[in-house]
Design a protein that fits this description.
This protein has 297 residues and is of the alpha+beta class. The chain is 14% helix and 27% strand. It contains 5 helices and 13 strands. The strands form 4 sheets. The protein has a 4-stranded antiparallel β-sheet with strand order 9-6-13-12, with no helix packed on it. It has a 4-stranded antiparallel β-sheet with strand order 8-7-10-11, with no helix packed on it. Strands 2-1-3 form a 3-stranded antiparallel β-sheet. Keywords: GTPase activation, Metal-binding, Zinc, Zinc-finger.
Length: 297
């Protein structure tokens, strides 16, 4: 019989599933099937055994069925970290980030907010800071809101001060392009705010939100509100991208649009209605209301 330490010796299991601590994991979640450091295992234990059952690799006895149930970190993260927002980086192994560690692990396993079957990742900005210096992701050709994004960060915090925020009420889409073999699509929308009209990868840190997915329709009705912050209402740009959600394969692009806020003379608590025709696609329009809220006195 394969023992638990042999499974732990696999490269993907030799670091913590949640914080990637380089110390060999000494704990595991038997029902989830992942290997954990002592700090992350403590957070798992606090979630309750109905979510995660923690066992020591060296101090506890393991049954054959428990060993066989260990799927491994690679498989677990393919499920539980399938759609992690860039605002939620993995926690550091340092004890200094235990508040953020708890927040991340709770979102990952209790709320299942990042999992492949979670259709909405419109999470708020994390309450606690992950005390680290994050590297800027490399900007790749053809990047967009859904893929690689550029962030202005210092130790996980925006380097800019926000003037206010937009409340976006995403109302509906009409005549969207078909991306599935059934002639329908499963559309959702990303919104992101940045300073550059021509570069949707240059976005303010954390200012990306995603709508819910509407299944099997070309005429979705969202009626969903989301908030994104603005640095300068006279120069910032609101970028929009529509995508088709796919459970098995990669999601399909359905069109985009950008709105220069200065063109619409937005002022505090003033609402404007938009019906925009999607660009770089064959058909489709998106309707929404946008209201600007000033944070200045």
């Amino acid at each position: 019989m394969t023992d638990i330490l042999t499974i732990r010796s696999q490269p993907s299991n030799s670091v913590c599933c949640d914080c990637e601590s380089k110390d060999l994991p000494t704990w595991a979640s038997t029902n989830i099937g992942c290997f954990l450091c002592i700090q992350c295992s403590g957070v798992h234990r606090s979630l309750g055994t109905h979510i995660s059952k923690i066992k020591s690799l060296t101090l506890d006895l393991w049954t054959e069925s428990e060993v066989a149930s260990m799927k491994g970190n690679l498989f677990v993260n393919q499920v539980y970290e399938a759609n992690v927002p860039v605002t939620y980086p993995k926690p550091l192994s340092s004890p200094d980030v235990n508040d953020y560690r708890k927040e991340f692990i709770k979102a990952k396993y209790e709320l299942k907010a990042f999992s492949c079957d979670k259709l909405s990742t419109s999470l708020p900005t994390p309450k606690f800071k992950n005390v680290c210096k994050e590297e800027k992701p490399e900007k790749k050709k053809g990047s967009n809101l859904r893929k690689t994004m550029k962030f202005n960060r210092v130790e996980g915090r925006p380097t800019t001060e926000f003037e206010g925020y937009l409340t976006i009420k995403l109302k509906c889409g009409r005549n969207l392009p078909s991306r599935d073999i059934n002639g329908k699509s499963d559309p959702y929308v990303f919104f992101g705010v940045g300073p550059d009209e021509n570069d949707s990868t240059n976005l303010y840190a954390g200012q990306v939100v995603k709508s819910e997915v509407q299944k099997k329709t070309l005429n979705p009705d969202w009626n969903q509100e989301m908030n994104v912050c603005v640095v300068n209402v006279d120069s910032d740009v609101l970028h929009l991208e529509c995508w088709d959600w796919d459970k098995i394969t990669y999601d399909d692009f359905m069109g985009n649009y950008h709105i220069r806020l200065k063109d619409h003379n937005l002022r505090h608590n003033q609402q404007s209605s938009f019906e925009v025709n999607l660009e770089n696609t064959e058909s489709g329009s998106i309707s929404m209301d946008i209201r600007f809220h000033s944070l200045k006195n």
